[in-house]
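Researcher: Please predict.
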Amino acid sequence: MSLSIHTVLVDPDELFREGLRRLLTEDSFRVSRGVTTLDEALEYFRDKAAPKLLLLGVSGGHGTTAADVQRFKSNYPQTRIVVLSELCEFDSVLAVLRAGADGFVLKRIDYKTLAKSLRLVILGQSVLSSSVIDFFVRRPEPKTKTAAIGPFAAKDNMLGGTITSDKFSRREVEILDCLTQGDANKLIARKFDIAEATVKVHIKAILRKIRVGNRTQAAIWAQQYLFARDTSGFDADAVGGDGTSKD
């Protein structure tokens, strides 16, 4: 049975808001309200139960986004918040996450990946779209060390260039594909007739190469970034798992 996720959608763009509302409604999200501003959302929920999920759309700059996230969290601390933005600016993303957002994705994300990401957020995970991860990975190294950003942290040695399947061994690409399907380590080991300990070694190498913290984040990265751009023959249709890292 599909999980009904009580959702409120805030976005100044009526066309975008209505289009996303219809997609969400058809996909087990119960969108009780679509509003233009956060103030409208706060007013609507003043005497009502808090929604499980707030999608906070941003058009243009992020002037008040962090403050808006903080305001809603102070009123409804249990609500999970994902910011949908047109822009990826380092300081703004950092401020939004520090204010309490549980996810930050760019509006150009495809709907299937967005829906899977939102379900991970509901399960307690923090999510950044792969485009945002790529932005941080390729951003020039700052002169001073940068604080950790949610589940991701800036590294002293940043990766450069585009990451494609040639950055991985054949086995790592195969295992990334398995991760996007939610396969557990035991199942992956059986698929390729290798030891479970070997699977763990490969997953550790994958996490290190793409600078993410666990297998779920690696699956999201691969589903949107690697397999979307590469023609190696893998078709990742699902992201699964509970988000915990046992590797």
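Model: The chain is about 45% helix and 15% strand.
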